[in-house]
Amino acid sequence: MAWIYLIIAGLLEIVWAFAMKQSQGFSRLTPTIVTLVAMIGSFALLSLSMRSLPLGTAYTIWTGIGAVGAFLAGVVFLGEGASAMRLLAAALILGGLLLMKLSSPA
To answer: What's the CA gap between 51 and 56, in Å, rounded?
Structure first.
């Protein structure tokens, strides 16, 4: 169950990062509310996953899902650049996440 919590927490991290961008410095109400609700949910689920997963594993996976997901959201929805170097960086992060998962005892 901890891995499910962690994955959902990572997905919520993508939501709050995207909504924060849309809030334009917390000047727009709806994206600001989405940001805060998603942050609370993300942190709560991360905390639950840390009951049984090691800190380094949980935190690394959480931030990695958020980083790669936010990158992809920026490319797909905001028209941000997807250069070969940026795609390679995202692929390396994904490789690191896979290795972290495979090396986790939980």
So the answer is: 13
